[in-house]
Amino acid sequence: MSRAELDDRVRSAIEAVVEPELGRSLADLGLVREVRTGPLGGVRVEVALTSRGYPMAAELRTAVTAAAESVTGVRKVSLDFTVLSEAERERVAGSVRSVPEGVSPARAVYAVASGKGGVGKSSVAANLAVAWATEGKRVGLIDADVWGYSVPQLFGIHRAPTAMNQRMLPVPAHGVGLMSLGFFVAENEPVVWRGPMLHKALSQFVTDVAWDDLDVLVLDLPPGTGDVTLSVLELLPDAALLAVTTPQPAARSVASRVGAMARSVSMPVAGVIENMTELVCADCSARTPVFGSGGGTQLAAELGCPLVGQIPLDIQLREAGDAGVPVVLSHPDSPSARALRQTAAAVRPVRRSLLGRSLSLTPVTR
Ligand SMILES: Nc1ncnc2c1ncn2[C@@H]1O[C@H](COP(=O)(O)OP(=O)(O)OP(=O)(O)O)[C@@H](O)[C@H]1O
Fold this sequence. Notes:
Elements: H1 3-15, E1 18-19, E2 24-25, H2 26-29, E3 32-37, E4 42-49, H3 57-69, E5 76-83, H4 86-94, E6 106-114, H5 121-134, E7 139-143, H6 151-155, E8 163-164, E9 167-168, E10 171-173, E11 176-180, H7 195-207, E12 214-220, H8 227-235, E13 240-245, H9 249-264, E14 269-280, E15 287-288, H10 295-303, E16 307-313, H11 315-323, H12 327-330, H13 335-346
Parallel strand pairs: 4-5, 6-12, 6-13, 7-11, 7-12, 13-14, 14-16
Antiparallel strand pairs: 1-2, 3-4, 8-9, 10-11, 14-15
The structure holds adenosine-5'-triphosphate.
């Protein structure tokens, strides 16, 4: 094969790599500056980064190097990064889109809620998002749990999002685009904002973020039935509720208030997820219902929706959350990861009834 042919093959392989922040190929974004192969299978590659402090350089280096090395005849890859000029950056930024106000950024929107804190709502939301992403869906996750945000920790991300064309880019991690108030505050700093400011922040997370044609948008709601939940419903009227509870009667009865709130604003309930269903003994397979049993089934019956999943108590789930890699990725064969994947497969979109909704239609009289 001639050097020119090898150059072409390496260029095609590299150009197919997807730039993680914008979710588009390097060819699309025009970021591959140079590919030059030497006589002994050495390749010099130059790729332009979209900004000086580009946060995904390590990931991009790994992906570009692997793509070049996958071409037969390539022995050694040397990759240099440069940065787009202002004019080039403006061209790329011009293609950053966001959804117009009032239009849903995703085909399905699920608001994950619980009656009280600590039942595992955020862990479930994070793992469902990753499970859908591993199925090939384009998934976004908004951490609407503004006072108790845990998405940065669960995904191991502690940096602010990149801004482009006056839009924030979702922070990519483990295949999911993320947005969280936690990305904007120093670690452990309390959030003391009140209702209207939080509503504004959430509305920016929906309309000022470049969510690009998502299949699924997951919202991790704060526990309870407060203002933030109502704000979310106002901003994303097509959201369907996924109610998380433990099997305990007390947890179920608080969760049922969330269901009642959803009904009062005509929000459909896509399902109930029972978390911490039982502890499975690693050595003897004995199952212990630490938090009692029946809560999920009863809540589903009360809300008139399916029980879409039962997730066991699993130390690997807790460890994975602490390590910043959701359990469906870090321990895919663990009991909780299996149950979470099954749950993701069982959730079906539900449409909100048009009854009682004001439609933006004007009747025509002849
Ligand atoms: N099935 C499970 N097995 C083991 N540990 C779990 C399970 N589900 C959640 N946990 C652990 O329980 C703790 C609380 O979980 P998580 O933060 O997801 O709950 P939450 O309902 O979102 O809480 P909050 O509303 O306070 O944010 C975490 O340490 C998490 O790792």
